[in-house]
Amino acid sequence: MFSTTRRITSLALAAASLATFTGCGSANPYQGMSDQDLFRIGQQKFEEGKWGDAIRPLDRLLITFGNSELAPQARLMMADAYFNKGDLLTARSEYQRFLDRFASDPKAPVAALGNCKSLAALSPDPERDQSYTNDAIGVCRNVVVDYAGTPQGAEAADIADQMHKKLAEKEFLNAQFYLRRKLYDSAIKYYEFVVQLYSDTEYAPEALKGIYLSNTAIGYDDLAEEARQRLLESYPDSPAAQELRTDGPGS
């Protein structure tokens, strides 16, 4: 009986010790720290490239000291840390939170560009669905308008242009797919999309050449010649025009 009682007591003490140890291990490491302390730790970890370690104290700062003068800097730094970490959806969310709360802050153009860059980084290869690419174009063009004359506006314009070209490439690749399989009507449809929607890209003259080749293969010589003339008139200096310049009737 005595032995059993001692054994139960020992187990209870061991359980209590384990609970104490576990409780200590899960204690908040930032307990009692000021907003300046939390920001200093987050900034140090950020500069060291330790993105996850930077996020934790910055997040604590924003939760505990939401009205701190350091809140805008902390929010933007945390967004940048998520971006650098590759968590692009969360980064975009944090940039947007910054803009929603600190729209008049001098760093607002930086946050807006971050939003644009996050979506552009999510844009996949041209062969895949381009929903993020379309979203990036809209957001980046808004940055161009909202922050005209700033370096961020200029960079956003370049990104929007890159996304625009990616959409052109996708339609062009679709056309090439059908051309290789001798499905000429479908190829022509996608080539026309490129010419009509992306006339300002390098894919437009190549698309006109594709229309020429497709119609030639079908035997529609009049439509082929029409495409050739459009190419020579609209893009006279393009490689595609140089290639077809001597392919017309009587050449």
State the order of secondary-structure elements, H for helix, E for strand: HHHHHHHHHHHH
CATH level-3 fold name of the domain at 182-251: Serine Threonine Protein Phosphatase 5, Tetratricopeptide repeat
Biggest sheet record? none
What top-tier CATH class of the domain at 182-251 fits best?
Answer: Mainly Alpha
Overall spatial form: elongated
Gross CATH architecture of the domain at 182-251: Alpha Horseshoe
| Beta-strand percentage range | under 5%
Describe the secondary structure blueprint for this structure:
Layout: H1 2-25, H2 35-47, H3 51-64, H4 71-85, H5 88-101, H6 108-122, H7 131-146, H8 151-180, H9 184-197, H10 203-218, H11 221-234, H12 239-244
Descriptive notes:
With 251 residues, this protein is mainly alpha-helical. Among the domains are: 35-85, no CATH class; 182-251, Serine Threonine Protein Phosphatase 5, Tetratricopeptide repeat (Alpha Horseshoe). It is built from twelve helices and no strands. The chain has helices at residues 2-25, 35-47, 51-64, 71-85, 88-101, 108-122, 131-146, 151-180, 184-197, 203-218, 221-234, 239-244. α6 (108-122) packs antiparallel against α7. The protein is elongated, with a radius of gyration of 30 Å.
Describe what is shown at a glance.
This protein is mostly helical and 251 residues long. The protein has helices spanning 2-25, 35-47, 51-64, 71-85, 88-101, 108-122, 131-146, 151-180, 184-197, 203-218, 221-234, 239-244.
